[in-house]
Amino acid sequence: MSPRFAPAAEAIPLHVLTPETLENWIADQPPRVAAWVRGSGFSGALGSALMIPGDDGGPVAALAGYGTPEQRARQRFPLAGAVPALAPGAYRLASGQLDNPATEALGWLLTTYRFTRYKDASAADRLLAAPGGLDTARIERLAEAEFLTRDLVNIPAEDMGPEALEQAARTLAERFNARMEVTTGEVLLEKNFPLIHTVGRAGPQAPRLIDLRWGSEGPRVTLVGKGVCFDTGGLNLKPGTSMGIMKKDMGGAANTLGLAQMIMASGLKVRLRLLIPAVENSVTGNSFRPGDVLASRLGKTVEINNTDAEGRLVLADALAFGAEESPDLMLSMATLTGAARVAVGPDLAPFYCDDEGFIEALTKAARDEADPVWRMPFHEPYEAMIEPDIADLDNAPSGGFAGSITAALFLRRFTAGAGIYAHFDIYSWQPAAAPGRSKGGLGQGPRAILAALPQVLGL
């Protein structure tokens, strides 16, 4: 379903209360309501809810606990925590002060996400009537793009291989009258995308480079998303516990598709380009091997010391291709390294950039949009770690230190010609359900990026 606000007509009044405001609210209520609330033990605790029945037993109002400021600081969408405890129906905000109404409205919409492709997970939803004074169309656009990202990540590789990922991009292109070209199979070699071909040649579906363009005026914005639809690790085979959620290894592609949808739906005056190298990293007789030295589009050679470090390889060709037309801003998004998760955990999206204007705008936007990111350094003394003896670059430096940084440095080698370059080493997965975030696929960074673009590009 598409996330939408409900009509206000017949919506149940919802009062958002904290432990501090509860008693004053009760004092203004009829004795029957006051007795019901006190008898229920409702305290205004974060995530709690209480339905208030009328004379016929049907709900005439509802309460949502908003907790203390300290408790809310620990939640991205505090109000969303109370939504599952409400009875099914539509609600309108009747009283209470929200810290960030737009963020809370988005969080409410995100609680309605259901992944129903393989199982009827439908449920009677708790809908929200459009709050006054908010740009509700914008909030709906953000939620719709997030639903797209979650769906793409949640679909298993059997049904979301390179062909299906191409179709998802094509559906988006058709919706917004964008142009799209796809380079597939052996043609990748003819058109000088050797790394994309080499990584994907062992897969059950042909590797490909998806190239979507939209817009005819404004700054050039190029998005590059890692589309490894399943990652076995190649001949450096992952253990089963690490392979279990590798359907999400195309999370970079899913996030850039969601971001592209946001940009196009918002009508930003930019010349948007989206590049997705779509492959599977599989094990067959023609898999690439540890010790191989591979050529890249840019001419740099890469020594393969771990076939499980394949994402940076396919991104390298796509980044080099995108940089050839000197975009004003180029962003890569990828589920690239376990080192990033060790450093900042699953909730934060670490990013690398040297442009102070972009960093400042993105950091503020991340706070405003409840889409947290964390700056990491392009630490140049580590450049030597990605320079092996027999090739220009090493795809997996030994030692295990600074794995996210060395991966980012590797990618930056292929971005000459781009104006501002930023790389996001995302997880794109919610390990356990949280308010506004269902377990499974997740968008990380697109809302913050979208909000930062006008300042960064002078729109």
Automatic annotation (TrEMBL):
Domain Cytosol aminopeptidase: 306-313
GO molecular function, one term: metalloaminopeptidase activity
A GO cellular-component term linked to this record: cytoplasm
Superkingdom, natural source: Bacteria
The family this protein is said to belong to: Belongs to the peptidase M17 family.
PANTHER family assigned: LEUCINE AMINOPEPTIDASE-RELATED, PEPTIDASE B
Protein name: Leucyl aminopeptidase family protein
Organism of provenance: Sagittula salina
